[in-house]
Write the structure tokens for this entry.
Amino acid sequence: MTGQHKLLAVFAGVVALLIVASLVGALLAQRAASAKSREVIANLNARTKAWWVMVAVLGCAFAAGQGATLVLFAFASFFALREFISLTPTSSGDSSALALAFYVLLPGQYALIWTRQYGTFSIFLPVYAFLFLPAVSALASDTRDFLARSAKIQWAVMVCVYCVSHAPALLLLELPGFDGPNALLVMYLLLVVQLSDVLQYVFGKLFGRTPLAPQVSPSKTVEGLVGGGLTAVAVGGSLWWLTPFTWPQSLALSAAIVALGFLGGLCLSAVKRSLGAKDWGVMIEGHGGMLDRLDSLSFAAPVFFHLTRYFFE
Amino acid sequence: MRPSGALLVGLVKLIVGAYPRWIGCQPCARQRIYFANHSSHIDTVALWAALPLELRDVTHPVAARDYWGHGLRRYIATKALRAVLIDRAREDKSSNPLAPLIETLARGDSLILFPEGTRGSEALPGPFKSGLYHLAQQFPEVELVPVHLENLHRSLPKGAFVPIPITCTVRFGAPLRLEPAEAKEPFLARARGAVIALSGLHA
């Protein structure tokens, strides 16, 4: 099977999964008796419907090539950053710093992937944005809550742009013995991280008893994490044929992706709560905002990228 | 909708979202005056963009001629948004500044109005000018829909040149009516209160 065929096979698998999910959802909707369960099922079906759209958009971008994939992730970063900043109380003194973040740093970070400059890509935001963002804010001479404001913008840029950009940065890696395309690695990461979220949700709804961190995320349960997480690791392990990994390596990397994805969801949930919100936004019907879908990816992507780069390049 | 209007709507949706929330009424073809808080140059397009496509064609924003009457701004206002321009300065004291608005309403079309008359810099709107009252008197059958635009004072505050991408929710409230014998000041205070109530910031 060539790389292109593998990519097609994965998409076919995802579409089959979505068909099953849609059928199950329709069946559950017919059976739902109480108002509460009807609400849960309606949300489930809205989520499945949104997944159809997300998979279609991703499929088109992958088919159109690396440039389109980069543009797609750049827009995902843009919307995530927009949500983060919307919930963050910034002051008018931050205008220039925010314009810099949205209109220079974000496109710049993705341009560095496009021009394949790994070195600059990896330090552009943690070093240069770190120094220049607060400098620009300081020039506006508004000292009220200066450290808190700078830190929030910094965090937003690191999570929404720097971390998320590591997913399409997988396209940069040159892996000996792997005849690619590297889009397969991006697909592998997305599949494991999102499947882990979905399975944790499903296991949580079916068997969830023990809340994990009720203050941070009331829907996360120990049963959901263990059941969903382990199943996602197993599925990830079985997808070794997409990647340059052997199956035990694939199991280990999937475990890393699932663990980091969980931590990402938890941390960003805590950030969201501290800003007094339940969802990051309203862009994706049933899911909330863009960042509600990217939270786990933002933590998993950089670690998966570096593990792959360190051990396989 | 014209291509220039579609481009403008696309751009504004990309930057501020302009997500509509129909809280007190539904989008429908009834003749209406939408009135909202005003804190940014994006307000007009954001409210217009939040309306469904078919309502945009018959809903005209009201814009100040002294700002929107020249060059590119004039093109955007009159061609893309099909706005109604009014004279804030009122050089000719004998003319009725509301005349173009009355003409539009008489034609059966709807209006988008910012009764503060100018952009404020606060989250809460300033006092309302009397135009809304006079229009309500002359057109009692037209629905007066309060609208709250959230966050736009953060995206493009007075004095800023580049809009910052920040999500804006456009909340549409329950229509008001001018009560028989209701005086100007209490009506304007009630209308302003209806916009504030939608913001969730009660003051």
The two ends of chain B are 39 Å apart (CA to CA). Chain B touches chain A at residues 17, 19, 151, 154, 157, 160, 162, 164-167, 169 (CB under 8 Å). Residues 68 and 74 of chain B are 5 Å apart (CA to CA). Chain B has one domain: 3-199.
